[in-house]
Q: What sequence folds into this?
């Protein structure tokens, strides 16, 4: 009888749908659980524990009592050197973001305006450095900035001409910054290009037709419409630049330790895992807060338009 | 001297000649339309007037001054783009204020001007909205208000109604006509839509393959097309091929294949004189052909009565072979016994009757000598 079989079928389709939903959303959830939520929880837990005698962590249960304390947090907020390094790291990351933006914007605009058949090749060239190892690229700067390389000679030659003492380029904040900018540049170029490439030429024609000069067309039309790309690029540069440790390690002087170096130190050298965890948590919160602030500023500046990027008509 | 003079302007893209030696003089206060199929060069010509493209040859003069050295932002010419090109990150007010800001209007004066402009295009209260919150017709009006706010000498409109539906298009056509009358600014309008061109313009330049085929008032263009292209492109037209057999004062007799001798007046409009032996086509609009039920005694006479010296009428017998009922009018295809097909149009104004003729009905078609128009090849 068809009348009796249909409710049963409906039930099975509904449960099938439910299973389907879980099959689709399950893997990402499992992924997030294992690679984000659980590690983050482990780190939070570690930040409240006591360092072990020979590194690592002391047992969680000691004499039947939970050994959890705020010692590491107290240390972070009382010893001002860590806050100073933190501020310096944010400053370096901001400078890196700014220089990346200044260098990447013209490049991205140029690629976006070049003939279609060359664009893929130019983009390939932008990401080409990724084909060689990160450390090799950083070490390459040791050679470029070395005291006997052409760059140092030119700079110091010019300084000597002005009657100035020669300065070492290597193992300085200059070397750290230049390499930070170099390493992160592609992360700024790509989102900017993706945005600029979608811009409608008709809008620029309209602006010109309505009396706008080249500069006015850029500042009144192109730049405001590219802000979503600017924010995306800034986030992609700022956040990794904030946590980096290899570049100051290799190219920086003793004064150029950043928060990433301190965290690495806590885990690998001083072996104070709880304090390293505290520094990591503070870093994560700072990065999230700054990204949130940027998003909020961006939204209030852009006004109502939901999609910042103009769609082609 | 005309306000805007296009003198022998050409533009080539590689081997393709987009605009070929075009000369047009547009008067101040005129609603001028460039009409043609896509690829005829009308948009290229418009872009050259705006300054986005430069002619390879010839000159464009505005008030007697050659515009060649002036970039778009320095020309007193504004464009309404087909896509409207409203700035998506600016409100309606911001969009309309933009040209004022570029012209360094004191910022204290801007709000009042923007408000007045919004009123002119019936968008009061829409100032704070963003383009994506507007309908197509509203966007079009904002684009017009933005282009007109600095009182340009010439307003260029690039198919501004093409993206809108038919009803709204008609409404905005009337608005555009009134607006143009009100502001008195010269409009140069580009379209491929012949009804739009006929409805809006003071004068029309019909373009084809980079050249101006005919430049005249809408009624002249429609009634007296000077080329097969114009006759065919504007509206529907019967093109009756034949050669001139006799010429008399003000009229010629053309021997049309499948129809016989047809009398055509030649003095009107073009003033063209054609002698015997010339071949060409008679352009005859469907609505100028009268259609009537055949009278029984004339049924056997398939010939014409146009050859007589005094006649100014052409009359033929035929059979309805097809019809298209369009509501207000019906299109009848009438075939003559010799195989000539004529498209005729009859208004469905007869009281109480849905339509007049059926397929197979014997009918009589007739038109006066001055209804047709001879086009030399």
A:
């Amino acid at each position: 009888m068809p009348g009796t079989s249909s409710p049963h079928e409906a039930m099975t389709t509904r449960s099938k749908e439910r299973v389907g939903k879980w099959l689709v959303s399950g893997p990402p959830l499992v992924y997030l659980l294992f690679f984000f939520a659980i590690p983050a929880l482990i780190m939070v837990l570690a930040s409240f524990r006591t360092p072990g005698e020979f590194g690592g962590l002391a047992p969680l249960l000691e004499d039947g009592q939970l050994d959890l304390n705020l010692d590491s947090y107290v240390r972070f907020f009382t010893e001002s050197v860590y806050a100073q390094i933190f501020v310096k790291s944010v400053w370096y990351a901001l400078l890196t973001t700014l220089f990346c933006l200044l260098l990447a914007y013209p490049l991205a605009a140029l690629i976006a305006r070049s003939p279609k058949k060359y664009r893929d090749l130019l983009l390939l060239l932008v990401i080409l450095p990724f084909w060689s190892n990160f450390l090799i690229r950083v070490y390459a700067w040791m050679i470029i900035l070395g005291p006997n390389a052409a760059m140092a000679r030119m700079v110091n030659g010019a300084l000597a001409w002005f009657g100035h003492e020669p300065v070492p380029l290597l193992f300085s904040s200059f070397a750290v910054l230049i390499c930070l900018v170099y390493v992160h540049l592609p992360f700024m170029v790509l989102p900017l290009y993706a945005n600029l490439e979608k811009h409608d030429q008709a809008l620029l024609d309209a602006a010109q037709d309505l009396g706008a000069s080249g500069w006015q067309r850029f500042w009144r039309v192109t730049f405001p419409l590219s802000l979503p790309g600017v924010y995306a690029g800034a986030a992609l540069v700022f956040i990794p630049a904030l946590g980096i440790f290899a570049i100051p390690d290799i190219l920086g002087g003793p004064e150029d330790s950043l928060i990433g170096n301190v965290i690495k130190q806590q885990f690998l050298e001083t072996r104070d895992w709880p304090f390293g965890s505290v520094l990591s948590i503070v870093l994560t919160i700072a990065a999230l807060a700054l990204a949130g602030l940027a998003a909020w500023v961006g939204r209030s500046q852009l006004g109502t338009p939901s999609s910042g990027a103009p769609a082609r008509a | 001297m005309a306000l805007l003079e296009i003198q022998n302007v050409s533009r080539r893209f590689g081997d393709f000649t987009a605009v070929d030696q075009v000369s047009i003089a547009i008067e101040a206060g005129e609603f001028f339309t460039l009409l043609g199929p896509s690829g005829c060069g009308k948009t290229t010509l418009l872009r050259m007037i705006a300054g986005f493209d430069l002619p390879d040859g010839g000159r464009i003069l505005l008030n007697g001054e050659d515009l060649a050295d002036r970039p778009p932002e320095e020309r007193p010419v504004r464009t309404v783009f087909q896509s409207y090109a409203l700035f998506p990150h600016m409100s309606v007010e911001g969009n309309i204020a933009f040209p004022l800001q570029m012209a360094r209007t004191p910022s204290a004066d801007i709000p009042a001007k923007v408000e007045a402009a919004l009123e002119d295009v019936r968008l009061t209260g829409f100032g704070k909205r963003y383009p994506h919150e507007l309908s197509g017709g509203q966007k079009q009006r904002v684009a017009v208000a933005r282009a007109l706010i600095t009182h340009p000498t010439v307003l260029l409109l690039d198919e501004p109604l093409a993206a809108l539906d038919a009803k709204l298009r008609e409404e905005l056509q009337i608005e555009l006509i009134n607006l143009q009358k009100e502001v008195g600014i010269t409009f140069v309008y580009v379209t491929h839509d012949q009804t739009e061109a006929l409805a809006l313009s003071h004068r029309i330049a019909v373009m084809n393959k980079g050249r101006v085929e005919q430049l005249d008032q809408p009624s002249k263009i429609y009634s007296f097309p000077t080329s097969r292209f114009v006759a065919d492109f504007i509206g529907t037209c019967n093109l009756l091929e034949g050669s001139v057999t006799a010429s008399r004062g003000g009229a010629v007799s053309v021997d049309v294949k499948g129809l016989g001798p047809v009398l055509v007046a030649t003095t009107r409009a073009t003033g063209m004189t054609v002698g015997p032996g010339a071949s060409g086509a008679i352009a005859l609009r469907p609505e100028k052909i009268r259609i009537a039920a055949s009278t029984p005694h004339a049924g056997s006479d398939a010939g014409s009565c146009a050859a007589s010296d005094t006649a100014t009428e052409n009359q033929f017998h035929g059979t309805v072979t097809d019809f298209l009922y369009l509501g207000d009018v019906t299109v009848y295809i009438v075939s003559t016994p010799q195989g000539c097909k004529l498209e005729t149009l009859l208004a469905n104004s007869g009281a109480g009757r849905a339509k007049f003729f059926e397929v197979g009905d014997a009918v009589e078609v007739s038109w006066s000598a001055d209804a047709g128009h001879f086009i030399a090849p």
Summary: The beta strands of chain A are 61-62, 65-66.
